[in-house]
Amino acid sequence: MTDQSTKNLSPRQASERVALTIKARKRKESQFLFIGQSAVAVAIGFLILLFAGILSKGIPGFFQHYVTLEVQLDAAKLDPTGQMTIESLSQGDFDGAVRDSLYLALGNPEGRKAKRDARKLISSGSSQRLMTYVLNHPQQMGSTVAMKFAVDDDVDSFLRGFISRETSEADRRISDLQISYIDILDAQNRLSYEISDYLFFGSASRDAEMAGIFGALIGSLFTLLVCIILAFPLGVGTAVYLEEMAPKNRLTEIIEININNLAAVPSVVYGIMGLAIFISVFGMPRSIPLVGGIVLALMTLPTIIISSRAAIRAVPPSIRDAALGIGASKIQTIVHHVLPLAMPGILTGTIIGMAQALGETAPLLMIGMVAFIVDVPTGVTDPGTVLPVQIFMWADFAERMFVQKTSAAIIILLAFLVSMNGAAIFLRKKLERRW
Amino acid sequence: MIGALYFIAGQRAALALRSGNVGKLHSLPHYHGIWAATTSILPALFVLLAIVIGKNLLFQFWARDYFPQDVLNGDAVDRAIALAKVSNVVDGIDFGDVAPWVQSAGDAWIRWEANAIIVANILVLSVSLVGGFLGYRRIHPTFRSRNNVERILTWMLIGSSLVAIVTTIGIVLSVLFESIRFFKLVPPQDFLFGLEWNPQFEGAERAGSGGGTATYGMVPMFVGTFLISAIALTVAVPIGLFSAIYLAEYATPRTRGVVKPLLEILAGVPTVVYGFFAALTVAPFVKSVGESMGFEVASESALAAGLVMGVMIIPFISSLSDDVINAVPQSLRDAAYGLGSTRSEAVRMVVLPAALPGIVAAIILAVSRAVGETMIVVMAAGLAANLSFNPLDAVTTVTSQIVTILVGDQEFESAKTLSAFALALMLIITTLALNYFALQVVKKYREQYD
Lengths: 435, 450
What we know:
Chain A is mainly alpha-helical. Chain A has a 3-stranded antiparallel β-sheet with strand order 2-1-3.
């Protein structure tokens, strides 16, 4: 039918017919283009939304409010035995010293409730901070020094305007009396809004104003260290074997299938394997960076293998032939010629794998790296936590300030990831050779 | 350290030999050094590894001597509990009074531990000294140390590639064994087809206080998983696919150079960040919008988790589809243009059908990714195992249940703990089946263009 009708059309008729549809087709064309552009726009919009949300919450998280107090460093009270060591200082009444200076600034409040309310204005970590200061500046003993102490997280929220004065006293977390104290401190210009040192140098804490990422950062470092020590040689070794030496047999095929399957296994399953094998069977302790690193190494292995293989494959065969031709052995060819030439590609893949490991949370939850650990780990066998897990734990806390600190920690994590990926892109651009 | 010493000694020896009769040495001196070093390090490393791994198993076996008869006669649960008691003593965890046999077993264990360290040190040192010495002795002008070193290196490379197999076996075994134990407690058909998931009641059931029975039906979780994945895909597939088409067919190289890395940033964001975003920003937003339209929305709705997961998957779909579309040969497009089709017609009628198997495979891989995703659902989806297809309800997923059950302290041999392993088994089977399926689609329907 259609064949017949087209046959009977003269060229003129045909072009007229086409001309009739052209407008509709052009419209369809621009609609299609518009759909494509809006898809990209939506995707980038999501990206902007994500980053804007985190940045807007996170930037305030880098700051917190401090109150400046003049503390009298009375040797008799702070260091009763006078040895100026940690042991002797820990018997001193630093709490009292901070408290007295606070009462002084507030004009000596009377009554138990007033005093308790006043005490709750500043962070409970203040005495620790004073003690560290005294330990580092023993010559200041006996004088009066002005020190900055973090305010309590509720006071911080009030100062940021999250807690309103208009709310009735029963509904807000700070009392009217405390607000009047804050006004007194403010009138004396004692309050300041500064970059939070607790965020960078503090460890895990239930008190939002003292919580910091230092311990988690060190834990991440140890975990990544274990991960790279294991994953890099294993990954490169596997890639070299599969690309350069493996005979085409059943075993090689099985290895290749296995690597592809491992790349598809959900990360949480690696955690289960870590729990069942390293912790239950081998009896390794929970929550240590060593086990975390091993699990992450196994998880990133496929990434490293696949990119290393691609890099090795990209080295032209003429190089190998030349090396073999002047009498180098197979291994010498690989070690002296192929590997150095493939190294930029291998390193790129490794960095990307490490970035993946740095951001991974689920398998580490399984092996118990969620424990609440205040001490900063000093080795791979000390219990610790890592940055993403810290973010996960903080995200569960309800305090307003934790939301900001979580976002601040996310910004730090993203900064690490972006710089790692940037380094990978830089390596690829700078060192890659086209043959 | 000893290895380094032997390296120097071996190289020295070889150099000395060479100075005597130049040109007679088979291998270069440093190969002799490496040879001596490996003979000292490798066996010592194996011994160390064997001690570290075998120590605990051996001690557990020895500790049985201290167990009273009734524990030995009991089932695996009793023995596991007894062992846990002993290891508590070893770790110095005090739970009040302990039975005398536990205390003595714990003390013995601590003693063994101390001895093991000494034995390990002596053994490792002596093995490395002896091994190194034997290697050193063999250095001789005619000794083919390079060949030997290379042979060892080859075996090490083979060994490292076997790690992939070992890992797979490890994953399968760890999940399989516990799953089999779970299926002994709970019949498989109850698990596979059960419509209720209620492991919390286990404690009550064991204590005999009534209050409900624990049920282990995995259907609600799989429904939840696929509900969230479906939401994620309805977000990700159109956006990802059309972005890929735009980038591959329309965008100028400059636009492409800017947009592609931007999309890849989305792929690089850690999932915990997405989870935080979903729980804190998207979920309340979905709730308030839904309620303003008169729907009842759970505060941890499947919709919020699915939306964010969709954003996470966009770059996955777009970059895979982009590759596939780029792989369609230019001649096909040229032919379409030659017949007078517009760009969009060429894409819809020629390029997409040609790329379809690859795109379908990409979507299947994205599903497998969504099913295995953990952190977003742990943080943003609920824990209540509702059997619901309503995206506004709170549902739970396989991965979030695994995490909830296995994080923190677990009870020994309880069906609840073991159920997590059975769920993990199902998860692995699902993802691997999806990946296999994707591979088959590509294999079967791919057109070969030359």
